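User: I'm writing a short methods note and want a consistent example. For Phosphohistidine phosphatase, I'll paste the sequence; you return only the structure tokens, no commentary, since I'll be parsing the reply automatically.
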Amino acid sequence: MKKLLLIRHAKAAHQDGKDFKRPLTDRGVRDSLTMADQLQTMHLIPEHVLASPAYRTKATAELIFEKLGIKSKAYNDFIYEANTHTLLNIIAGLPDEYNFVAIVGHNPGMSQVLYELTGEMIDMPTATAALLAFDFDEWDMVSSDTAKLAWYGTPKGNEAFE
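Assistant:
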């Protein structure tokens, strides 16, 4: 079984014309660390992390996964401003050696791919994470409606699903 953790970057400062370099706000840093605590408590520690190279996304990923002790990470330029189709292709192309992967990205892509994979219409505010479970062992089998939402967390709390 494959598991995918979708994470939307934490709250970032607004800067005119410099979207790619927007830093996290103080709240964004706190929310990232709160999410790391939740993931640790739930024993949701991915083997590998793939993130957008945008500053706010890298910062979110680093704060969360440094606290969890995750060493295997990579950045993918295509996650920045990715649509559903692009994200599905990225997920389907993940190496099968990893059974549990996290992707840290942006909205609307994170919310859209969550809906596409699960049929669940759930918004992903900043610093939100959603755990998806698949009933197969190859990432290239990922397609529409192939995942179940197993867990959903925000900095304010979380919920497990059956």
